[in-house]
Amino acid sequence: MKVLSLASLLLCSSAAMAHFTLDYPQSRGFDDDKEGTAPCGGFDTVANRTQFPLTNGFLQINSRHVSAEITINVVIGSNPVAADFTTAAGTPANSTSLKHPGNACFPLDLSTFQGAANNTNATIQIVYNGGDSPLYQCSDVVLVTSAPSFDQTKCVNNDGSTSTSNSTTNGTSAGTAISVKSTATAAAALLIAVAMAF
After folding, report:
1. Domain ranges in the chain?
2. 70 forms bridges with which residues in the sheet?
3. Signal peptide: which range, if any (predicted)?
4. Residue (of 56, 35, 147, 179) closest to 107 by Cα position
């Protein structure tokens, strides 16, 4: 019985770690069962647009994997279709490796991104691969030179630090999240403690 309970616990734990959420700016929507559906995790209709600054912008995600490969694509336009995301993937705004689970903030400076300008509609796509298969989330934004409603306090990493380093990818400004403390050890200790209780 203890072995079965432990196996069930590990299976549930694995299922809970099988996705990520795009927490900021606002995602089009989230459904864990559809998140593997390109290009936007099963949400193909433009949703509410968030003001997104051309400079000093960022994305906030919550990763349920210990490590993942992250690609950020940007489609300029009001009503992108699947082919637009395929084209955008040829010149990603950012591509990086995430080395920890939990909160992760990725700076995204679009000031030199082709087609980006003040009052331009765009959709930001996150392609996330934690080792099993790609998962997708999108956020619809309007790019602006001044975004007073953009909340800088949303940029949080596991250790409470903010991401500040920027790099350039494919001629566009992009960001790289700083490393933060891993919670994998704490999660493993919790699983062992629960298993020992059986």
Report:
1. 2-197
2. 96, 128
3. 1-18
4. 56
